[in-house]
């Protein structure tokens, strides 16, 4: 967002994009620059009464942002409109997720909604959302799906508030670099090696954009930078392995893969939630994904792929043979399981009979 302000209200960190006069009438060779110190600010105040600034490219503290909001109500109106737009997408995506899985109860929905609202009000966030997501509702909707699933997973495994906030900010902007790539390339089914490498650059682009955010700490940048890295070192851009990845990066990788699998793309047909979890479970067995974190994601969704070890409410251990076993009835909550004792007895149980996924057993 660009706005003309009085030089009396200039603060260090603002990005000046127009001095209001031709360059040859001023002593400035550059008319686009970020204010870096008080001496530079006072020099502008001595020569100009007004300048145009770009809030998107500015790096402001929360206090300075609040001062500008006080003097220029138009900024607050603009920010509120962008927050409302993001919130509308959030609500639609939340409803879609609810229809397709057993994911969110009312309490969790409320907690996630509050977190999203807080993130959308952080300095520069609305401006970045407007700049990079405007006219790209597909990217925004996909981002909101990832954001909701990420926050639900983080709450499920009881991460700290600080880590959840870092995950929320990373989720909102992890793929923002996609907005800088040619749209025809993103919609192309068969990519050349050069095109695939170009798309992989979106990680670097996203990191560069996220680094502009005042609230983007090292944890946020780490998640964005590593959201395509795999536990076995087969990911990109650095080929990191599980020992080099944080829990948040591992968690986020699983969420983004699940979201991509359950969405129609030019590369693949949309999978059902259980089909996607079966694929993730196979990848964890092959060590592409971290096994325990993958099982915890499965546990959160309460959908159980074939082979997943579970502990029942009667404290018996079993392997799931099939989810939604009774396919000729409307009842979708029946599982076929094989007990680990009783001579491998096979039985049908209700989904509600499962206490948890057993992370300590190898299927």
Shape: elongated
Helix tally? 14
Instruction: Report the major sheet.
Output: 5 strands, antiparallel
CATH class of the largest domain: Mainly Alpha
The neighbouring-strand order within the major sheet is 8-7-6-5-9
Given as residue ranges, the uncertain stretches (5+ residues, pLDDT < 50) are none
CATH topology heading of the largest domain: Hypothetical protein af1432
Count of distinct strands: 9
H/E topology pattern: EEEHEHHHHHHHHHHHHHEEEEE
CATH architecture of the largest domain: Orthogonal Bundle
Structural class assignment: alpha+beta
Straight-line N-to-C gap? 54 Å
Proportion of residues in extended strands:
5-15%
Number of domains: 3
Q: Bin the helical content.
A: 40-55%
Let me know the average pLDDT: 85
- Computed over alpha carbons, the radius of gyration is 24 Å
Q: What's a concise summary of this model?
A:
By secondary structure, the protein is of the alpha+beta class. It is built from 14 helices and 9 strands. The chain has a 5-stranded antiparallel β-sheet.
Please describe what this structure looks like.
The model has no long low-confidence stretch (mean pLDDT 85). The longest helix is centred in the first third of the chain and has 28 residues, at 73-100. The chain contains 14 helices and 9 strands. By secondary structure, it is an alpha+beta fold. The chain folds into 3 domains: 2-61; 72-291, Hypothetical protein af1432, CATH 1.10.3210; 305-357, SH3 type barrels. Strands 8-7-6-5-9 form a 5-stranded antiparallel beta sheet. A 4-stranded antiparallel beta sheet has the order 1-4-2-3, with no helix packed on it.
């Amino acid at each position: 967002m660009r706005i003309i302000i009085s030089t009396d209200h200039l603060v260090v960190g603002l990005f000046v994009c127009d001095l209001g006069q031709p360059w040859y009438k001023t002593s400035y060779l550059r008319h686009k620059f970020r204010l870096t110190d008080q001496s530079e600010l006072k020099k502008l105040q001595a020569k100009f009464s007004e300048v145009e600034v770009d809030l998107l490219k500015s790096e402001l503290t929360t206090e300075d942002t609040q001062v500008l909001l006080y003097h220029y109500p138009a900024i607050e109106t603009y920010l509120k409109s962008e927050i409302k737009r993001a919130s509308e997408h959030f609500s639609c995506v939340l409803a879609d997720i609810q229809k397709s899985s057993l994911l969110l109860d009312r309490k969790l929905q409320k907690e996630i909604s509050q977190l999203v609202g807080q993130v959308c009000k952080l300095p520069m966030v609305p401006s970045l959302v407007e700049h990079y997501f405007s006219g790209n509702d597909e990217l925004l909707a996909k981002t909101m799906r990832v954001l909701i699933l990420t926050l639900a997973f983080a709450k499920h495994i009881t991460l700290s508030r600080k880590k959840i906030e870092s995950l929320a900010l990373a989720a909102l902007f992890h793929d923002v670099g996609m907005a800088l790539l040619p749209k025809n390339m993103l919609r192309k089914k068969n990519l050349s090696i050069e095109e695939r490498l170009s798309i992989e650059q979106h990680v670097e682009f996203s990191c560069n954009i996220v680094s502009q955010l005042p609230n983007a700490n090292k944890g946020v940048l780490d998640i964005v930078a590593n959201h395509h890295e795999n536990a076995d070192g087969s990911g990109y851009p650095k080929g990191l392995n599980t020992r080099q990845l944080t829990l948040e990066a591992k968690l986020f990788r699983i969420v983004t893969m699940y979201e991509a699998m359950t969405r129609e793309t030019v590369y693949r047909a949309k999978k059902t939630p259980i089909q996607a979890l079966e694929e993730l479970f196979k990848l964890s067995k092959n060590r592409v994904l971290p096994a325990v974190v993958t099982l915890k994601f499965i546990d959160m969704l309460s959908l159980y792929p074939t082979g997943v070890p579970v502990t029942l409410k009667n404290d018996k251990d079993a392997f799931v043979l099939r989810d939604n076993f009774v396919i000729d009835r409307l009842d979708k909550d029946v599982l076929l399981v094989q007990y680990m004792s009783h001579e491998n007895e096979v039985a049908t149980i209700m989904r509600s009979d499962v206490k948890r996924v057993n992370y300590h057993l190898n299927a």
